[in-house]
Amino acid sequence: MDVRQRLSANLRRLRSEHGWSQEDYADRAGIHRTYVSDLERGARNPTIMMVEKLAVPFALTASDLIA
């Protein structure tokens, strides 16, 4: 599994565990809902700065999010 696939799987899993819709999570992360959908499908290759932003709502570090 490559890093983009791990990120996608982790985002879906964590978002589901928190009971958040894609829109809820997007609001918390300060990004657009369609971007969340693209990330979860592996259709986007986010920058490391974006990975850091994606980790904040889960109270994780960027490295934890992609581990």
From TrEMBL:
| SMART domains according to UniProt | HTH_XRE (SM00530)
Q: Which InterPro entries match?
A: Cro/C1-type_HTH, Lambda_DNA-bd_dom_sf, TransReg_Diox_bact_type
What Pfam families does the record point to?
HTH_3
> Which domain of life does this protein belong to?
Bacteria
Show where the HTH cro/C1-type domain sits: 11-65
Q: Which UniProt keywords apply?
A: DNA-binding, Transcription, Transcription regulation
User: What is the protein name for this chain?
Assistant: Helix-turn-helix transcriptional regulator
Give the species.
Answer: Sphingomonas aurea
